[in-house]
Amino acid sequence: MKSKTVCELCDQVGGTLLWQDASCRVVLVEDADYPGFCRVIWKKHVKEMTDLSADDRAHLMATVFAVEAAIREAMRPDKINLASLGNLTPHLHWHVIPRHAHDKHFPQPVWGAAQREGAPILPPGWQVGLKECVRSRLPG
Amino acid sequence: MKSKTVCELCDQVGGTLLWQDASCRVVLVEDADYPGFCRVIWKKHVKEMTDLSADDRAHLMATVFAVEAAIREAMRPDKINLASLGNLTPHLHWHVIPRHAHDKHFPQPVWGAAQREGAPILPPGWQVGLKECVRSRLPG
């Protein structure tokens, strides 16, 4: 009997798919407190950025920065937070999080202590806008 | 009277200097729970990665990944955590954090809830080793 390693990001898309190519995908995360929260997920099961080749690293980061630019355009946040953690799911993925001065945790990281109830700011038609902004900045 | 914008990373080195060039510096952060925690700080006061030129972004990320590789070599962590947040200090800086399965917050982010007392793992001579590993991977 073959043993099976379970990895959430190998088995599942991980959100609403906004864009993908052969190497990576961009998904919109369902998070009521953080509309516009995206993840950029490397398709192969790789643990650390320095396990990728320099070309693959550059490709993944170019995708992350395209998503950052798209979120800034579509969501007009006060700050962008970027993180590659993977302690629970050691499969390369980047969090790209729009932060607003009155969101639930600001100025703490979204993983820190809540500061208030938080009132997500939603530009009209943001879901369509964000998808268009992401796609317009990435090939294909 | 001129008004003065106070920025901690414009005014201070931000840790023990391990390496620098004209654009950025690498510092070792004093954190008793996370020996080997480094920051890569862009020297100019810039808020977001997408405010940098593509060349500057590539230069900063190459430095971040050199530090990641150095920390992996010197500290042998179970995972690397990378993050650019800047909610409190909106001056580009990357956290490069060695994580161990039995550290204070694992598998939570270091900004999350503590899981235990934590027992930092210190390879013999780690401070000298880390400095040498950082410098050997960066020019000059």
Task: Give a brief rundown of this model.
Two copies of one chain form a homodimer. Helices cover about 25% and strands about 20% of the residues of chain A.
- The chain-level structural class of chain A is alpha+beta
Mean of residue pLDDT of chain A? 95
| Overall strand count of chain A | 5
Q: Largest chain-chain contact?
A: A-B, 29 and 29 residues
Termini Cα gap of chain A: 41 Å
Beta fraction of the residues of chain A? 15-25%
Give the fraction of residues assigned to helices of chain A.
25-40%
Total count of helical runs of at least 4 residues of chain A: 3
Low-confidence segments of chain A: none
Backbone CA Rg of chain A: 15 Å
SSE order of chain A, one letter for each helix or strand: HEEEHEEH
Strand order of the largest sheet of chain A: 1-2-3-5-4
Oligomeric state = homodimer
> Strand count, sense and closure of the main sheet of chain A?
5 strands, antiparallel
Can you put this structure into words, describing what you see?
2 copies of one chain form a homodimer. With 140 residues, chain A is of the alpha+beta class. Chain A is built from 3 helices and 5 strands; from the N terminus they run H-E-E-E-H-E-E-H. Chain A has helices spanning 8-11, 54-75, 126-136; strands at residues 16-20, 24-28, 38-42, 79-84, 93-99. A 5-stranded antiparallel sheet of chain A has the order 1-2-3-5-4, with helices on one face. In chain A, strand 1 (16-20) and strand 2 (24-28) form a beta hairpin. In chain A, helix 2 packs antiparallel against helix 3. The longest helix of chain A has 22 residues, at 54-75. The first copy, chain A, is globular and about 40 Å long. The interface between A and B is medium-sized, with 29 and 29 residues. Strand 4 (79-84) of chain A pairs antiparallel with strand 4 of chain B, so a sheet runs across the interface.
